[in-house]
Amino acid sequence: MSDQFRFLLGESDIPKQWYNILADFPVEVPPPLHPVTKEPVTPDFLSVLFPMELIMQEVSTDRYIDIPEPVRDIYRLWRPTPLIRARRLEKALDTPAHIYYKYEGVSPSGSHKPNTAVAQAYYNKMAGTQALTTETGAGQWGSALALAANFFDLPLEVYMVKVSYNQKPYRRILMEIFGAQVFPSPTDRTEFGRKILAEDPDNPGSLGIAISEAVEAAATSGGKKKYSLGSVLNHVLLHQTVIGLEALKQMDMAGEYPDVIIGAVGGGSNFAGLAYPFLYYTLTEGKSTRFLAVEPTAAPTLTRGKYTYDYGDTARMAPIVMMHTLGHTFMPPPIHAGGLRYHGMAPTISALVKEGYIHPVAVPQVATFEAAVLFARNEGIVPAPESAHAVRVAIDEALAAKRAGEERVILFNLSGHGHFDLAAYDAYLKGELEDYYYPDEAIEEALKQVPQVERGE
Ligand SMILES: *Cc1c(COP(=O)(O)O)cnc(C)c1O
Predict the structure, then answer these.
(1) What does the pLDDT look like over 395-416, one tens digit per residue?
(2) Which has the closest alpha carbon to 213: 202, 201, 197?
(3) Which residue has a Cα nearest atom 5 of ligand 1?
(4) Residues 96, 405: contact at Cβ < 8 Å?
(5) pLDDT of residue 455
(6) Are residues 101 and 241 in the same domain?
(7) Which residues line ligand 1 (CB under 6 A)?
(8) Which domain does 383 fall in, by range?
(9) Averaged pLDDT for residues 215-244
(10) 133 in helix, strand or coil?
């Protein structure tokens, strides 16, 4: 075996098609439902929010879907991304395990999110959409979509969770550099925002509220504006499979196949992007790979949420989907620094967890930042706090391999860098972070609010 660190592909190796796991799915995925009628959503309902091409991708069962050349041309600015063997980390841990990571932080906005942002902006431009709306928490998604909208000359309105808008200016500035308009949510621009502000003028905002505002802004624009979502939906996960398709070739270059694949999950897109092209071989050839989806103990959607139909947003305007959920009224605690705050999960990931193909793991935040700092000191890259959840479990797997005396092959997704999240690292280094376990009572309370759906469980 070679002693290589980096496994690099050329521009011609950028995938020409995305992989659609729905072609090989082992079970039926329950359909998304209309938030009012609770009947399966029609393309008509979705077309208020999304261009038809993305709606077709949402429901497609074709195994491969062509990546348009203009999208691939923009991918060429940073793709293929490197696959790196963490040899220095392996040495520091004194483990026989081989640790590989796919590094998506080399994109212009610093995460995997432009992989779908570019595709979504392209299909909207082709469909004649005049402007896009979206929400963002700390700004990873907003800055990715701002980058993409700029490339296709589409104006963009971003509803940014107010507490992040006030405390984290740098990603807002990045969005503004790319020409987006950014508003602190709840705003007085939408009916839902005004309602929230009337009840509570100091409401700090939440992802669920910001989604509702962005959806309303598109739905009431008379067809001029469309809405764009950075995770959860099938077409978003589809676009992210460029990660895993490249990683398959790169693992081949390394002469290995992963025993375990690890990714952090918020809505599930970076995890699915890496995992699904490998899961293909589990589903079709029976390869035995363990897939670990990692979440924070402060927002334990897969490990402690319920698999049920729930609303995608706080205002109950988005479709109802079958997924693991903490309830659409979920508000993560302010002391939680690591992101991954969405109350729900991508329906395909939830279904694969239920069927036992994917195993969820929750990690507390102090151990997560500890792992991220150990990684930074050995590999030289400061992980995004979200990605640090995957780093934690990769290190735990490497230590377990050491105890077992096994040469385990570990692959994880380093979904982004943490250069805009240094305040969270500062809090960790000063000893100010505390672990938080979301209380059972709060989950039970919020789950009383899920919709009653006949066909649900
Ligand atoms: C947004 C984000 C995540 C979480 O979103 P997923 O859709 O679950 O991937 C993870 N890592 C980074 C760096 C992010 O920006």
Answers:
(1) 999 999 999 999 999 999 999 9
(2) 197
(3) 266
(4) yes
(5) 58
(6) yes
(7) 111, 113, 140-141, 231, 264-271, 340, 384, 386-387, 415-416
(8) 6-14+78-110+235-447
(9) 97
(10) strand
